[in-house]
Automatic annotation (TrEMBL):
Domain PH, first and last residues per copy: 61-185
Stretches with biased composition (Polar residues): 738-751
Superkingdom field: Eukaryota
Biased composition (Low complexity): 693-710
Leader sequence residues: none
Disordered as annotated region, ranges: 627-751
UniProt name for this protein: NIBL1 protein
CDD domains in alphabetical order: Niban-like
Protein family: Belongs to the Niban family.
Pfam families xref list: Niban2 (PF26086), PH_Niban2 (PF26089)
């Protein structure tokens, strides 16, 4: 009820925040459009990449699928769920594998942007206790969550609902954690870099808005697509007031109040999301409508706009630069080399590990071809190698190197709230470089196959191509890392400088507005030009620091003067060809089946195979565990439906009893979900869980239809949102527990 009373004030404050942001966005849109057209006309001769880039790397593939337990908040029970991770990295949960194979709608679709993956209940309780100050369970009281195994996987979000999973072994937990982290990493990177106008306009508008509120430095919640990021921006302002208003009114014991608070926060987040989506869509549509006229003006008056901007910049530079240079000299320059070294060490180790993993996989494949023979084995291995970059477990050793990134005292000095933004960015670069290397290798090898005679020729050719690709990788890796270091240094130092200079400079900027012609006011902003001048004050020092690191050959960086030009002039032409389908092209099978049958045979990047220890597979173990007739430690409740033991103690007891009964040590009764080095041919057959469809990564806003007689397979699009619990417009009921549902009517979908 208290949330219902707050509905109108919350909507009003949300509208106010969004109104200010949309004004920033409209201003930044014109600047971004001008920059895009200018770049298109003038170009920028940066170093040319040597490796090929694949356009659609995961078409018709899923990352992983398998069983785990999920805690259902509505009935406080743990249930076995079949989880599929499709090509767009949404988490799709089905009632069971049979429901998945029959194309029934999923129970939950989760977009994991902004979530943290926790593997300890204590970690989770610490975050929950800090989210609502003054509400901490006393020792001895039942905590908000109890896990039936020692291997939990918890998805925690500062505003949205939380998800609770667990598995039966430590190795499974590690592999699911790697999969979940890949999902978070991908979903966090939700703003498309292909958009040369909308993306920079949006990110600059977010930055300008936060700076107007005296919030400088990095921001951890710049996660997900534009609507998700904006929702986080609004929640950042709403939450303190919401906590102080609602927190004291919560009733019950501490765990119950914490649970209620999570539900309230989630309900507000959904309400904010709906309002945000509507207002943001409106402002982007308006900008898009005005774009043709704006672009026409830019192309007609490009020279005059550039001249006007340079005149403005010269006046601002004369006013700002002396102060900025003193600030750089005293507060930034002494620390640039320390920041760079802190960034270079883990990043370069991660890229070196990418090189090592790629080298090892190709070398192992070559040795196995020598031992096992010929083209048939090559096809099996190449089908797996082609998606190496998207194998969360095999890439984990590369990603883990970034965990060493520590800025120590520098983090506090430069107001860097967290290093996670730099870690994730570097990890995304690693994955891209791995995929580029793999794609270049398979393209060159595919070209050579027709000329080869015999196994010896094939192995020599593989080795020769591997060496060529590694040289290209070293060059591209150096280029990508140097760019990453420069961008990271700017991202750390520029907000710090702007904050330092604000008291003496920001109030004086208004007087420069009169220097801009009214016709060009949409494309030149005083605030942006001021920031460019501040950037120029430190850019020389940053470029010099990175250049010196390259000259000293630190971390295998190449000097800027070392440029590879057209070493393979025809290679990029090869990359434009039809994607290589190793299995279909060399398996000797007849023509490819129709689209539906092809989806039915879709491959899985991470194979589910049996361990060498002879333990029960996870699915078999789970089915035995969840059989109605399986032994239970005590008499079942006569009023309960004949189903699985759902409570924590019952599941633990059943796990122990099943494992001891089969002669398997406790904790070993689970198949390892994602082995680090799957054997060739170990992909799951269609009957074992290969997807019929690829459900989309969902965000809130769209209801998923319930199945009906004769209905076709549920196929949400890549832009489907999937939230069916938001109250009707103008209403705000009390927070309802959302997420999974136990009825067969409809599908609950999530952010």
């Amino acid at each position: 009820p208290c949330l219902t009373r707050l509905c109108s004030p919350l909507a009003e404050k949300t509208g106010k925040v969004l109104g200010e942001f949309c004004r920033c966005y409209a201003e930044q849109y014109g600047v971004a459009l001008f920059n895009s057209v200018r770049y298109e006309i003038e170009g920028n001769g940066g170093p040319q990449a040597q490796l090929l880039h694949r356009k659609v790397p995961l078409e018709d593939h899923v990352i992983y699928s398998g069983n785990l337990f999920q805690y259902i908040e509505e009935n406080k029970k743990w249930r076995n769920r079949f989880c599929v991770v499709p090509h767009n990295y949404g988490l799709v949960l089905y009632e069971n594998k049979l429901a998945y194979e029959r194309d029934l709608p999923p129970r939950v679709l989760i977009n994991s942007a902004g979530y943290k993956i926790l593997t300890s209940v204590d970690q989770y309780l610490e975050l929950v206790n800090s989210s609502l100050p003054g509400v901490t369970p006393k020792s001895g009281h039942t905590p908000i969550l109890k896990c039936p195994t020692d291997f939990p996987l918890i998805l925690w979000h500062p505003y949205a609902r939380h998800y609770y999973f667990c598995v039966m072994t430590g190795k499974e937990q590690e592999k699911w954690r790697a999969v979940f982290q890949d999902c978070v990493r991908h979903c966090n990177n939700g703003i498309s870099e292909d958009s040369k106008v909308e993306a920079p306009a949006f990110t600059d508008a977010v930055r300008m808005y936060r700076q107007s509120k005296e919030q400088y430095g990095t921001w951890d919640m710049l996660c997900g697509n534009e609507t998700q990021v904006l929702s986080n921006l609004v929640m950042e302002e709403l939450l303190p007031e919401l906590r102080s208003t609602i927190g004291p009114r919560l009733k019950g014991k501490a765990p119950e109040r914490q649970r209620t608070w999570i539900q309230i926060s989630d309900a507000v987040y959904r309400m904010v999301y709906e309002q945000t989506k509507a207002q943001y869509d409106a402002v982007t549509a308006k900008c898009e409508q005005e774009r043709p006229q704006m672009e026409s003006t830019i192309r007609t008056d490009m020279d005059q706009i550039i001249t006007s901007k340079e005149h403005l910049a010269s006046k601002i530079r004369a006013f700002v630069l002396p102060k900025a240079e003193v600030c750089v000299r005293n507060h930034v320059q002494p620390y640039i080399s320390s920041i760079l070294e802190a960034l270079m060490t883990p990043t370069s180790q991660g890229f070196a590990e990418v090189r090592e993993v790629f080298f090892k996989e190709v070398t192992d494949m070559n040795m196995n071809i020598v031992n096992e023979g010929g083209l048939e084995k090559l096809v099996e291995y190449m089908e797996k190698l082609s998606h190496l970059a998207f194998h969360p477990v095999k890439m984990q050793s590369c990603y883990e190197k970034m965990d060493q990134l520590k800025l120590e005292g520098l983090q506090q000095r430069f107001d860097v709230s967290s290093t996670s933004v730099f870690k994730q960015r570097a990890q995304i670069h690693m994955r891209q470089q791995m995929d580029d290397a793999v794609h270049t290798f398979e393209t060159l090898l595919h070209q050579e196959l027709g000329k080869l005679q015999g196994k010896d020729d094939l192995c020599k050719s593989i080795q020769r191509i591997l060496e060529r690709v590694l040289k290209k990788y070293d060059y591209d890796s150096s280029t990508v890392r140097k760019k990453f270091f420069r961008e990271a240094l700017l991202q750390i130092t520029i907000p710090f400088l702007l904050k330092k200079l604000a008291p003496t400079c920001k109030g004086e900027l208004a007087k420069f507005q009169e220097l801009i012609f009214e016709d060009f006011a949409s494309f030149i902003l005083v605030e942006n030009t001021y920031e460019e001048v501040v950037l120029q004050s430190v850019m020389k020092d940053i470029m010099q620091a990175v250049k010196e690191a390259a000259v000293q050959r630190k971390h295998n960086l190449y000097r800027d003067s070392m440029v590879m030009h057209n070493s393979d002039p025809n290679l990029h032409l090869l990359g434009e060809g039809i994607p290589i389908e190793w299995g279909e092209e060399y398996s000797g099978q007849p023509e490819a089946e129709p689209g539906a049958d092809k989806r039915r045979r879709a491959k899985q990047v991470v194979s589910v195979i049996q361990d060498d220890e002879g333990v029960l597979s996870y699915e078999v173990g789970a089915q035995v565990l969840l059989q109605p007739g399986s032994p239970e430690p005590e008499e079942p409740d006569p009023g309960a439906p004949p189903s699985s033991p759902d409570g924590v103690e019952e599941i633990r007891a059943a796990l122990v009893k099943e494992n001891l009964g089969d002669g398997v040590p406790p904790g070993a009764g689970a198949q390892r979900a994602t082995p680090a080095s799957p054997a060739p041919g170990a992909d799951v057959p269609p009957s074992a869980g290969v997807p019929h469809t690829t459900p989309a990564s969902p965000t809130p806003g769209t209801e998923t239809p319930s199945p009906s007689a004769g209905a076709t397979c549920h196929q949400p699009s890549d832009k489907e949102t999937g939230e069916d619990v938001a109250p009707p417009a103008g209403e705000c009921g009390p927070p309802q527990p959302t997420g999974t549902t136990e009825s067969s009517e409809g599908v609950q979908t999530e952010f």
